[in-house]
Here is the input.
Amino acid sequence: MANLDFPSSPTLNDTFLGTNNINYQWDGEKWKMYTDPSTAQSSLWARDAGNVDVYPANAGDNINARNGGGTITATLNADGSIDFITLNIEGLPSLP
Here is the structure.
């Protein structure tokens, strides 16, 4: 992903749309991710474990975390709950 080129002299509450399609707002000290309260869907961060990209997801989406083999190991559900994979402990090797 390319570096973001933020404006060099922002004023309080200026907004900036980055090349990553994320909106940012200047809070007087730093650029923070910004969600326009008048929009129906807010922009959230999601990460694709396959290629380590970070990208926006829409509010209401489930967000999956995958292990190195591509298997979903956890899901952050749109309702705020989290699902984890179940593990069959009887299938694990015995301790020495």
Observations:
- The beta strands are 15-17, 23-26, 31-33, 43-48, 53-58, 63-66, 72-76, 82-84.
